[in-house]
Here is the input.
Amino acid sequence: MSWPRSTSPTSSEVQLARQADDPWYIAYQDESTQWCSQRMDLEEKVANLGDELARKNLMIFELKRTVEEEKKNSELIRKEKLRVETDLAVFDQVVENLEHELQVMGEEKSRFIWAVLLVVIPVLAVMWLW
Here is the structure.
């Protein structure tokens, strides 16, 4: 490095000129640059991992909310099923009672018809014979 004659180099300029030619300094600068680059890469990876963690936490939250909703729906379905089963049992009992009443009414009607026939047939026979 050449210096103009009118000015003399400062100590920092001399130091920079020496460092530019020093292989140890050059290696240090290269390694320092690599470390900075690696650090920036690691910081970017950490930031990406933070974003991914936030997304996964949101997914977990959504899944928990969905599970809670499904539990509520399942409980509602279970209660509705019990209500329907109770209603069916009541309806079955009503049908049995109606069938029994129809059977009793049928037997009573049948007895009434036989009673009428037992009275009417002899009366008709007597009237026919007259």
About this structure: Residues 41 and 72 are 46 Å apart (CA to CA). The chain has a mean pLDDT of 84. Residues 23-129 form the longest helix (107 residues).
